Amino acid sequence: MQFFRPSSLREALEIRAAHPEAVPIAGGTDLMVEVNFGRRRPEAFLDISRLPELREIRREGPNVRLGSGVPYARVIRELPDQVALAQASRTVGSPQIRTRGTVGGNLGTGSPAGDALPVLAAYDARVVLRSSTATRTLAWRDFLVGPKRTALAPDELIVATEWERAVGPGSFSKVGTRNAMVIAIAGLCLQLDEAARGVRVALGSVGPTILRAPEAETFAAGILDEVGAWSDRGARVPEEAIARFGELVSAAARPIDDVRGTGAYRRHACAVLATRALTWALDDRRAAAMEAAS
Ligand SMILES: Cc1cc2nc3c(=O)[nH]c(=O)nc-3n(C[C@H](O)[C@H](O)[C@H](O)COP(=O)(O)OP(=O)(O)OC[C@H]3O[C@@H](n4cnc5c(N)ncnc54)[C@H](O)[C@@H]3O)c2cc1C
User: Nearest 10 degrees: CA dihedral of 61, 167, 140, 36?
Assistant: First the structure.
């Protein structure tokens, strides 16, 4: 087995072009499980874990660019204001996994249960891909094309993911069989966008890939408008409207029955996660309004 260890992105992309059979390895927390269980036997590895270009976090105005090789532990430390992403990162595996595992690897695997992915979807993130000859940027939904299927070409690497920071409360939550070290049975990210007066919701583990819930999003934004909550953060949203939002989010799921849970349970979990997430967001806004008034 060949093992390539480039020291720059340029060198890595040249190796990628010359040896498309070499499988990129970042933290190895997905890939080595596959190898150890005998499900994959790569002829060659391309170690991208030491490339400084992939380990950068950059902010320019409202834009955030997260290098694909940044591990979760750094996301938690260095991007605490990206609340939903930091929360999702905190739920990944154990401290060891969070020290090695990267958001780029979560994208590379493209599992519908990848915890960073609903957050990137709710952030309307883009995925930056580079080959030795070109760079392209895809919307998250054009990158995640199916269950563990992505639009990555054999000569490309995921370089970064980037998004425009939405101002407003956001959260990530998931349901599993225990509180830690668990693959989500259902996961949800909700992000309010105060400037656009929008509500964004993305779901994980309840469809072939990450799903947004557009009908629920339009409904929630409309209700906030109706009760005047976009201009008055203290305004109350009726309980029935929050429950209806949960139903609409649940209806957007396309779950299957599997070893982790039934489709019916997953739908129910989506409704619970959605009503909680919207309630938390509204509570946060009300608390901020009260603090501003005091
Ligand atoms: C014990 C344990 C617990 C876990 N818990 C969770 C959890 O709670 N939530 C969760 O979402 N995941 C979990 N995982 C899965 C895993 O940790 C994550 O998916 C992590 O984000 C993978 O990142 P990595 O850097 O280790 O990827 P790797 O294993 O190195 O790579 C994964 C895939 O992506 C490709 N790849 C990686 N980086 C790039 C790149 N820059 N360009 C192109 N292709 C690339 C690789 O070729 C490979 O196919 C867990 C894994 C273990 C072993």
Answer: 100
Using alpha carbons, select from 203, 167, 159, 165 the residue that is nearest to residue 185: 203
Mean pLDDT of all residues in the chain? 97
pLDDT at 180: 84
Distance CA(130)–CA(12), nearest Å, equals 11
Q: Is the CB of 15 under 6 A from ligand 1?
A: no
pLDDT of residue 178: 86
Decide: 221 in ligand 1 pocket, CB within 6 A.
Answer: no
Cα 109 to averaged position of ligand 1 atoms, centre (Å): 6
**Mean pLDDT for the stretch of residues 191-219:** 98
The domain spans of the chain are 2-164, 170-293
Cα-to-centroid distance, 103 and ligand 1 (Å): 7
Q: Is the CB of 68 under 6 A from ligand 1?
A: yes
Closest residue CA from atom 27 of ligand 1 = 105
- Digit-coded pLDDT (tens) for 24-42: 999 999 999 999 999 999 9
Please state the pTM of the whole predicted model: 0.97
104 lines ligand 1 (CB under 6 A): yes
CATH of 170-293, one of 3.30.70.20, 3.30.390.50, 1.10.10.10, 3.30.2130.10: 3.30.390.50
